[in-house]
Design goal:
mainly alpha; 9 helices; about 65% helix; about 0% strand; globular
């Protein structure tokens, strides 16, 4: 199914934002429901760098998790009022949205409907939404700042999945699947190593106490 470019819808939102208040729930509605995927992308882009951003990722990862679960259950894309109905500051949001338009216009050159039949299946839509929710969960986990890529890997996966789902790109979404698999393996391995390390430290500490 062909859609008008999301960057075009976003430009209209910016024009309206000059005279109206904007919220995350309003952004979703004004971009013809496809704004849900835009919100996934907007909330993930700040973390698509190797340097972890603890604290902020916990909150935004939780927002992504909530929205993705609603998407999986085919519920209306809406955030709780305390999150979704808060008025966003105009200067900062206009800057974020204008930068997002530039990024989206670049991305739209490579993303298009390809091999889309299976993406319309209910099972595929449910599974893809749950995968985004799982990546949101990984993004919100409180990994220490010393762990590289703990934010960027889930964020990149969410961006790839959201773009593919938004534009019904059955080719690009495989890059999202691969990225999600790498993310899961990496963070699971890192968690295992951290548990092993702290277990040894605690063991050495208790042996010292008992000596």
């Amino acid at each position: 199914m062909l859609h008008p470019p999301l960057s075009q819808s976003l430009a209209i939102v910016i024009e309206r934002h000059e005279t109206e208040h904007l919220t995350l729930n309003g952004l979703i509605e004004r971009t013809e429901k496809r704004g849900l995927y835009l919100v996934f992308i907007l909330l993930s882009l700040p973390f698509a760098n190797p340097i972890p951003m603890p604290g902020l990722s916990n909150v935004l990862g939780f927002v992504i998790l909530l929205l993705a679960i609603r998407l999986a259950l085919k519920r209306r894309a809406v955030l709780p009022p305390f999150l979704g109905d808060r008025v966003l500051p105009k200067p900062q949001m206009e800057l974020v949205l204008r930068n997002s338009i530039r990024i989206l216009r670049w991305m739209e050159k490579f993303v298009r409907p390809r091999g889309t039949d299976w993406l319309t299946w209910s099972a595929a839509q449910f599974g893809n939404a749950l995968l985004v929710a799982f990546m949101g969960f990984l993004l919100m986990l409180p990994f220490p700042p010393v762990v590289p890529f703990s934010n960027s890997l889930p964020a990149v996966s969410i961006v790839l999945l959201a773009l593919s789902m938004m534009e019904e790109d059955g080719v690009l979404i495989w890059a999202g699947y691969i990225s999600s698999l790498i993310t899961t393996i990496y963070l699971a391995s890192t968690t295992g190593l951290m548990i092993h390390f702290f277990t040894r430290i605690l063991g050495a500490f208790f042996r010292w106490l008992s000596s």
